[in-house]
Amino acid sequence: MENKAKQDAAMLAKLDEAADNQRKKHKSYKCQILICNSTSCRSSEGKEVIEALGECVKSHELTEIVEIIPTGCMGLCAKGPLVRVELAGKNPVIYKHVNPMLARLILAQHVMMALKHKGDFQLPDFLKEHTLPIDMPFFAKQTKIALDNVGIINPDSIEDYLSRGGYESFRKVLTMTPSEVIDEIKKSGLRGRGGGGFPTGLKWDFANKSEGDEKFIICNGDEGDPGAYMDSGLLEGDPHAVLEGMMIGAYAQKATTGWFYIRAEYPLAVERLTKAIKHARKYRLLGKDILGSGFDFNCEVRLGAGAFVCGEETALIASIEGKRGTPRPRPPYPTESGLWGKPSSINNVETFANIPKIIRMGADKYYAIGSDKSKGTKVFALTGRVENGGLVEVPMGMSIKEIVSDIGGGVADGKQLKAVQTGGPSGGVIPTYLHDLPVCYDKLKEVGSIMGSGGMIVMDNDDSMVEIAKFYLGFTVEESCGKCSPCRIGGTQMLRILERISEGKGKKEDIDKLKRLSFAMQKASLCGLGQTSPNPVLSTLKFFEEEYMEKMTEEANDEEVK
Amino acid sequence: MLGQEKKSGCCYDSQNLEKTPSKKKVFSKTELAIKKWKKKRGSLIMALHEIQDLKGFLPWEDAVEVAEGMNVPLARVYEVLTFYNYFKLEAPGDIIISVCYGTACYLKGGKDVLDEFSEKLGIADGESTEDKMFHLQTVRCVGCCGLAPVVVINGKTYGKVRPSDVRGMIEEWQEKHAAKNSVDGASDGE
Ligand SMILES: Cc1cc2nc3c(=O)[nH]c(=O)nc-3n(C[C@H](O)[C@H](O)[C@H](O)COP(=O)(O)O)c2cc1C
Ligand code: FES
């Protein structure tokens, strides 16, 4: 008994020591160079920049003075690879579009010069040209909670995560009862970030109350919205935060095994998450009798195989079971009968990433951020015709205008903003005159779109709304699993009509047909895919019907009369 | 520099398989993949991923082996293979060109890039050239939307691609292919 107490104390001490040592290690360097090592920046020479800097630091014998930290996404992907130089006592400097050549110059002409001249160092103009103002709205107007560590820590280092207070929330939770944890999450007002917006605390409560010899907790990392990468940004940039969130959920729901279901198209996210799990096991944060609490939990990673519908929770479960990813009607909800018939609760990657922060900052403080019925922050992948495209996190309730014009820097190439699309293939377009709308679950719904998982696509005056509607519908038709006929047949028919209109062969009554088919699909489809797939068509019709009408040619309509 | 990176597949620990020394019975790669996943729950798709990563596609014989080895009806394996887009039942070309067809890339001209590849190579989306050198396919977002439109060729990512870049990209890979073949040929003693 005594022995066990000793062992438990030693495990905790080991965690504290690792965190302390890492903090000391960071402090011992005079300069830190952070480089974005995410999929996006890596593919535009970021990998080579990291190598070049590493070699350079070595050849100048600076390995004990300059620390190079490969991080997750710093956000401004359109201007990557990004490099951030932090010198003790100075404001950080951020460089854009860095290549190996520029990286060497940064080291020689900025870092080494600043270290040599200390107080009176001025950044040379030729380098200044390549910097981004640190106070630019893109950085200044964001509130980072889920992305708190992303772009700051090395995602491959559990010690880095520990040094920033990592796993302290989990340790705190182990001293609470499951229902206390659930109450805290309920109080925070957190709603699911995967698109549905279901209150997370309530889901956990249901899951906690279901009985079973085995219970599962699942992380939905399928990220189906084509053109959005919030979850990949989180998994690549701070996998431990997602893991810690799941572990807290598992404790609260008394789950025995956790499953991460990740898109196969995200090999780097899978690699980093797998590593994070391995490191957590090493520190006894996973396994049996975790940190002496008596709580047993372990988790596994499973991959998707390129099916959008597998983001839907019942299809996801079928996919892990090794079946076709076809959804089934609910109830029973997965919290009663899920994976292999056992109680299973599912949350999105970003939902989990918020959990450790809520425990740390306290539910009340989290509740104070955001708008009326949407609490906290939301991560968006801001893309399309926007100047500062990238990954951004803002408090709920910020207006679309602020996100696009201030943070996003407005439309690129001096063109005119026409609309913003949210919610991906299940969402809709929002025209410019509505851009004072606060971004939150309910308001977006009111104008015919949805919050979705965080895709936000900016469109300018040259973008055709008919083509956008056709693009999204083409996607959902291709991805329909084919199980229910409203979705399988309705979608195909709608797409045919859209193609006809797009080719100038549409007839006026086609608009009516589109609306009728949409209604049928919304009402009669089995799962969210079919129920929401008419949304892009309906919302473009609602706000831009004239564009559909412009495509109607006289010939096509005359034929009708004959 | 020239992204000779192996196509980053998804079986993060498949390297372990390569290292296994041939002591007594020599297991095929497929057998090893089956052995590794057989005892784990929810692993049919993982085993298939691993085999595809090693072979580039899923030959029918392997599907049969998986069904027998993992005790899953062959019909189920077939159902899974045909349902999920990721699995290929036929050998694709050596050089796999994936044009991103996610929203961000579509909006910024991904279709023009796809059409250009299609025209230059004379194949449509999902097809391989007759000499099996190139395979053209579309993917839905590779997480680099800030660099749209994006093309990934055998693991190397190209951002902000214009249709006028396509020709150079094809030539780059033809050269690489020729260089690789001459090295392989030399080592085979042919
Ligand atoms: C067609 C379809 C696709 C979905 N895709 C995703 C997805 O990619 N990621 C996700 O987290 N949730 C997705 N969902 C929502 C999930 O079914 C589920 O509600 C969610 O994972 C629950 O987690 P949350 O409460 O934390 O949001 C999808 C739903 C539907 C109907
Ligand atoms: S849409 Fe092409 S990378 Fe995201």
What is the CATH fold-level name of the largest domain in chain B?
Glutaredoxin
- The CA-CA distance between the termini of chain B, in Å, is 30 Å
In the sheet with the most strands of chain B, the strands line up as 2-1-3-4
Largest beta sheet: strand ordering of chain A: 2-1-3-4-5
Strand count, sense and barrel status of the largest sheet of chain B are: 4 strands, mixed
Shape of chain A: globular
The CATH architecture assignment of the largest domain in chain B turns out to be: 3-Layer(aba) Sandwich
Question: What is the fold named in CATH at topology level of the largest domain in chain A?
Answer: Rossmann fold
Return the CATH class of the largest domain in chain B: Alpha Beta
Explain how this protein is built:
By secondary structure, chain A is of the alpha/beta class. Chain A folds into four domains: 29-134, Glutaredoxin; 165-367, NADH-ubiquinone oxidoreductase 51kDa subunit (Rossmann fold), CATH 3.40.50; 378-458, Ubiquitin-like (UB roll); 466-561, NADH-ubiquinone oxidoreductase 51kDa subunit, iron-sulphur binding domain (de novo design (two linked rop proteins), Up-down Bundle). Chain A is 47% helix and 13% strand. Chain A has 23 helices and 14 strands. In chain A, the strands form three sheets. Chain A has a five-stranded mixed sheet with strand order 2-1-3-4-5, with helices on one face. In chain A, strands 11-10-14-12-13 form a five-stranded mixed sheet. Chain A has a four-stranded parallel sheet with strand order 8-7-6-9, with helices on both faces. In chain A, α2 crosses α3 (100-117), α10 packs across α11 and α18 packs antiparallel against α19. The radius of gyration of chain A is 25 Å and the shape is globular. The termini of chain A are far apart. The mean pLDDT of chain A is 94. By secondary structure, chain B is of the alpha+beta class. Chain B has eight helices and four strands. In chain B, strands 2-1-3-4 form a four-stranded mixed sheet, covered by helices on one side. Chain B is globular. Helices cover 46% and strands 9% of the residues of chain B. In chain B, α4 (60-70) crosses α5. Chain B has two domains: 2-83, no CATH class; 95-189, Glutaredoxin (3-Layer(aba) Sandwich), CATH 3.40.30.10. Chain B has helices spanning 15-19, 29-38, 44-55, 60-70, 74-83, 103-107, 110-121, 166-188; strands at residues 95-100, 134-139, 151-153, 156-158. Chains A and B meet through α2, α12, β8, β10 and β14 of A and α3, α5, α6 and β4 of B.
